[in-house]
């Protein structure tokens, strides 16, 4: 249910492939994603995307009720992605919901199709968001807009998310992956240490 493609030039493409369940994540899928994210220290660039019309609905409901909603795997995954020295892009092929926000928030860039929506219905479901999700979202869009999504449970469409700064670019569905690969072109074509240094400079506070 997780596909990994690695090209000769070091681009890793991770694809959530459970479209019949809106790419909802099970514990086994999260474990596999964590393993890939740790291995991706060797990548020169990484794209995370999904199949179908939804990027991910977050936790599989049955798994969530069984304890997945509060699993440390969510924090392990987003932390591993955030720690990667390479450029990371979330190519949102559709709606981003719940705990799946952590993967996208941990990426350097987020691009999305026009029909994508972002929401995180933790209050309704009786769970707290993962700590780093709230921190990263607030760093991107500010505390008030973060509360709009997390506390008020609002569903944000792609254009509003772009205006907020939660999404960096909106592209037609048929161009999504080409756009993601284009964003990687300079990094993949450069000397690795230079690319890492520039990325570090961009995130240095």
Summarize the structure.
This protein is an alpha/beta fold. It is built from 10 helices and 10 strands. The radius of gyration is 16 Å and the shape is globular.
Largest sheet: 6 strands, mixed
Beta content comes to 15-25%
Distance between the termini: 37 Å
Tally of structural domains: 1
From the structure provided, what is the oligomeric state, counting identical versus distinct chains?
single chain
Q: Which structural category fits the helices and strands?
A: alpha/beta
Write down the overall geometry: globular
CATH topology type? 2-enoyl-CoA Hydratase, Chain A, domain 1
* Strand arrangement, major sheet: 1-2-3-5-7-10
Q: Determine the number of helices (DSSP H or I, runs of at least 4 residues).
A: 10
CATH superfamily assignment?
A: 2-enoyl-CoA Hydratase, Chain A, domain 1
How does this structure look, described?
The chain is α/β, with parallel strands linked by helices and 205 residues long. The protein has a single domain (2-179, 186-203), classed as 2-enoyl-CoA Hydratase, Chain A, domain 1, CATH 3.90.226. The chain has helices at residues 27-39, 61-65, 73-82, 101-106, 122-125, 131-141, 143-150, 158-164, 176-189, 192-203; strands at 2-6, 11-16, 45-50, 54-56, 87-92, 95-97, 109-112, 117-119, 156-157, 169-170. It has a 6-stranded mixed beta sheet, with helices on both faces. Strands 4-6-8-9 form a 4-stranded mixed beta sheet. Helix 1 (27-39) runs parallel beside helix 3 and helix 6 crosses helix 7 (143-150). It is globular, with a radius of gyration of 16 Å. It starts with a strand and ends with a helix.
